[in-house]
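Thanks for the sequence, V.! I ran Signal peptidase I right away. Repeating your input here for the record:
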Amino acid sequence: MNDTNNSHKIKKKLRKTNFIFEGLSLIRIVLISMIVFLIAINCLIRPTYINGNSMYPFLEDGQIGITNVIGVYVGEIERFDVVTVYDHVEEKNLAKRVIGLPGETLEYRNGTLYINGEVIEETFLDDDYVNEQTNNGSIPFTSNYGPIELGEDEYFLCGDNRRVSRDSRELGPFEKSEIISKDFLIVFN
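Predicted structure:
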C-alpha cells in the first residue's frame, strides 16, 4: 500500500512538473513571437493608417495598409516613390511623394515641374482629377514655387492632392533620416 501511495505521489508530482514546463514553454513561445512581431513592425514593415486627403486619389482617407521600412535603408529613394515622413510640427506621420532628389534645383512654374531646368512629367497624377480641380486646366494644379536648391541629403516631397497637401512647399525639404518608410500596400479600404 505504501508503494501505491508513493507511486501516486510521484505521478502527481510529474504531472505538476509537466504542467509547469508546458506553461513555461508556452510563455517562451509567446515572448519569442512578440519579439519577432516587434522587429518586423519596426524594421521590415509598418502598418499605416491614411488620415486625410493629401494623397488623393492614390491614397484615400481611412485606408489601412503596410509600408516598407527596410526599403529606405537597403534601396534607393527614387523620384515619385511614395514615402512616409514624420511631421515634427503636428507630431504625426505623413504620406507624400518624392518630387525632388538631393542636389537638384526644383521649381513649379505655371503648373509644370522643372528639375535642373528640364520639364519633368508627373505621370502619376490622375488627369481626370487634375482637370476637375483646375477648371479644365485654366488654373494650375500646383501653384508656382521655387526655384529651390536641395542640399546633399534633402528630398522635396508633395502630396498628390496639391490643393490640400501640407508638404515641402510649406514644411521645407526633408532629410533622408526623416523618411521612415516607402511604398504602400493597401490592405483595407
